[in-house]
What does this fold into?
Amino acid sequence: MSKASVRAAQIIKVSEGSRSVQSDLLAVEEPLEIRLGFGLNQQREQKSISVTMRTPGHDFELALGFLFTEGIIKDKAEIVQIKYCTDTNSLENKFNIVRVELNENANIDFVKLQRNFYTTSSCGVCGKSSIEAIRTACDIQTNNSFCITHTTLLSLPQALRKQQNVFEYTGGLHGCALFNNSGELLLSREDVGRHNALDKLIGAALGSGMIPLVNTVLLLSGRASFELIQKAAMAGIPVVAAVGAPSSLAVQLAKDMNITLVGFLRDERFNIYCGAKRIKM
It folds into this structure.
């Protein structure tokens, strides 16, 4: 567990009608700004593309995963370097700004840089257009032959919990993990933001040459939202399981992208919302 991920605090704990002063640990939440450097070597430009509230740690993976799952880059070869902008005048922001240097030939889609890649899930019409946008941007097809037994699936939440070091101390982070169909843990990440945790995970996979993730199961420690299914689709993940509930648009997107979606995976039970063919009973 990184010291940057937690912060000590004094609290008053109330229990059974009495109270006491105790020490506690809090999950750190700080902003991370992602900047792009692009253009010819003699005419480099810079553009700020995102600010997200995250738990410090694996920041370069977060930036890499964000760019990939938003469809801004297709391959890590498009990136020359990722670095902190340590030349900032503010010591507080010294490690809260990263600059991703793209190679000269990188083709930037400025529409996606404005985060028009998908729109809010509060509108059915917008939802349909969002799914169509993802279908257009996604180059990876999910694996129809991949499958996992229901007993292996039931064992995954406990395996993820063992990896959630900061959650164990603070109770304040989301976690996600990749497994193969034997239940072997491949990668795990955690963050105060569920989408950041998944971007860190996919960024780590991209950096390790594991993309496409067509033979993996993604486990989410919370609910399955539209945004998380979108990121899984971009990485080619065929099975997504969540400890919590999926949203209606998450289910619709999973169906359209041929992803098996499982929810309420806990207490020796789960619900299959689509793609049941990949779950062997």
